[in-house]
Amino acid sequence: MSQSITYLSRLWLLLCLLPLGAAAQPAAEPALQTLSVRLAGAALKDVGAIVTALETEVGEPALPLLQALLDGELKYRVADQRLVTTLDTDDRRYQLTDILSGEALGTAGRREVRKVRSNNRIRAQIRQSIARLQLRSTDSDTRLAAARGMLGDVRADDAALLRELIAGEGNEDVREQLELALRLHQLESGSAPQRLQAAHALAGRLEPEVQNGLRALIAKDDDGEPRESDAELRAAATKALARSSDRMAFFGFLETLFFGLSLGSVLLLVAAGLAITFGVMGVINMAHGELIMLGAYSTYVVQLLMPNHIGASILVAIPVAFLMSGAVGVLIERGVIQFLKGRPLETLLATFGISLILQQAVRSIFSPLNRQVITPEWLSGSLQINPVLSLTYNRLYILVFALLVIVLLQLIMKRTSLGLKVRAVSQNRAMARAMGVRTEWVDALTFGLGSGIAGIAGVALSLITNVGPNLGQSYIIDSFMVVVFGGVGSLWGTLFGGFSLGVANKFLEPVTGAVLANILVLVFIILFIQKRPRGLFPQKGRAAE
């Protein structure tokens, strides 16, 4: 019974103390209001002290105010010392918004509003305050960004804070960045053993702040003498920089390889359709570039029709571009090419004329000006692997998309009736006709399929370049080079040829320049064709010649 009474008494006491405990908690809002009034119109020498008070007394709720002050957007209304942000209006007045509450305060003349003063020293202090407040945030991404922002800019009184945060940090990425910031601070301001230990620990790091800190240790003065007197520390910094340089060279190689594969994927897409039509029909289609252009303009039109769904418009544009360019391709084959079979020169001239007609039609409909396709949000940005290597999402998706297109084409060619007939016609047209294959319809469907793939290539190109009437002309020569180099009619040859030429081009560009790199690639292909006229992966069969 006595235990029950004791338990009830304690529970009653706890319930009575709850309101007192809530009232005893430090309220940030009154302190924020008081300091904001002090900040409005404060002398420059007092702003630094107010910033310190905002950090220590208010904490995270002061972040919007500090960020506005850092960006130079914090002002105050002279009449009541109220902190505001402003927006210019047409009548040369300011639209005022309260920085603390977000309340709209109407308009005011330019003389009625003044800017809160700051300088470079105060702005540096504000950056540090914002970083320290964000380091205590409950959001791991915010803490990670704040830790990265402190690299190379840690004050002496921040070292203890970093050690405390490292001990309690549960996120591995955030902890790594905090340790890196502490190591940089020790490298610059620590004791001799700490500096040496930091130099060894920073070996191989790729961050620019680390590189600058290590280079400062091996720098020389105007007389050629080392600025750092500790020879062991200089040796450790030299070794650390060498290791970092090796890693940077490796990741630079990977970045160049990625750009080469990205260019190769574009070449693969623009050449895949040509490989089918050229391989089956032997037609040199000079309008292939304009079919690519039609696919790009189809993407632009789809976005005009779906202005509120830009993210989904690219997915809708893929089948639309395929059908649009494929239908035009079938019309070209049925209306012109079928009457010029066995006459390659006339076919070349006819398709060249068709390319001019398509270009002029686009100029008449859309004007000669370039059009820009909006990149969806899910295709924007880049995948940051490390400080020196990032992969842009649009090129990464195009690379994956090109591989999917080739796999799908390969399945069509190997697993469908159309693919069987296409392979039969490409190897021996007369025998296929004798076996009952309607070669004229195979030609039409093949030309439509190749043209549709060209339209899909236009969708991809619209994401990395402007859409204009001359878009296809930039890629027609490259697509023919890929097809001839890989082997006429061979999808695997087109795959290997596109990636090979793309990678070779990107590795040559830093050494020779973009123009000379293209010339060297062209010379290589000419010499290669002299040795192997049928390309890397020639077609096989008795009539393949």
List keywords for this structure.
single chain, mainly alpha, five-stranded antiparallel sheet, two-stranded antiparallel sheet, 21 helices, 545 residues
Q: Helix coverage percent of residues?
A: 55-70%
Tell me the strand order in the biggest sheet: 4-3-2-1-5
Mean pLDDT: 82
Q: State the assembly state of the protein chains.
A: single chain
Helix and strand element order: HHHHEEEEEHHHHHHHHHHEEHHHHHHH
- What kind of sheet is the major sheet? 5 strands, antiparallel
**Broad shape:** elongated
Number of E-type strands: 7
Strand content: 5-15%
**Low-pLDDT segments, ≥5 res:** 1-28
* Number of helices, where a helix is a run of at least 4 consecutive DSSP H or I residues: 21
- Please give the alpha-carbon distance between the first and last residues: 106 Å
The SS-based structural class is mainly alpha
Overview of the molecule:
The chain is mainly alpha-helical and 545 residues long. Helices cover 67% and strands 6% of the residues. It has a 5-stranded antiparallel β-sheet with strand order 4-3-2-1-5. A two-stranded antiparallel ribbon has the order 6-7. Helix 9 (192-201) runs parallel beside helix 11 (231-281). The termini are far apart.
